[in-house]
Write a structure and sequence with these properties.
Number of strands: 7
CATH class: Alpha Beta
Strand content: 5-15%
CATH superfamily: Uracil-DNA glycosylase-like domain
Number of domains: 1
Largest sheet: 5 strands, mixed
Shape: globular
Order of helices and strands: HEEHHEEEHEHHEHH
CATH topology: Uracil-DNA Glycosylase, subunit E
Strand order of the largest sheet: 1-3-2-6-7
Amino acid sequence: MPKFKSSDSAANDLIPPRPTLSSLKRAAADCRACDLWKKGTQTVFGEGARRVKVMFVGEQPGNEEDLTGKPFVGPAGRLLDNALEEAGIDRQQTYVTNVVKHFKWEPRGKRRIHKKPNSLEITACRPWLEAEIAVVKPDVIVALGATAAQSLLGPQFRVTKQRGEFIPSTLAPYVMATVHPSSILRAPDDETRRLELRLFIDDLKKLSKVIK
């Protein structure tokens, strides 16, 4: 198993003895390790083929992911798809998941607005991510955004300083962090958005060279 900080999360008790991706997904559907299950429509587990070369880890599912039960299918997921295609990486040959498996949100009018998960919620969900990494055994793990990067690489890690670099880690042969696609969508203007997208694609191209 990958080396994370030890966790007393109740999720540990739900991990099947000889886990597969399908058995993990079934078990995670009943997870009550933190209170986020009360707000989310459903658990949004990771998705992808077993034994893929690349695992992408984001922060948490968004509104569309919460409603469909599938990770990275909303606007940020579509941006990721397009960026992967431009970088020459087949999305079907990747595994995508999140540090937290339920959508944390707060109401704003009729909309449900993303709210950042706290350390207790991240810790509660950690056994699921541990198990996913252990089953998939990716060659490369890519943390998308600060929450995922700090969960995987420690609280002192800064994406702004080390994005696109391969970081020594026991989690996988190669570990990289870059921005979350949603941050690109939140850019203040078109010019900034185009620049951030180009930098993101450049990070993915470094990844493409490693897996090929």
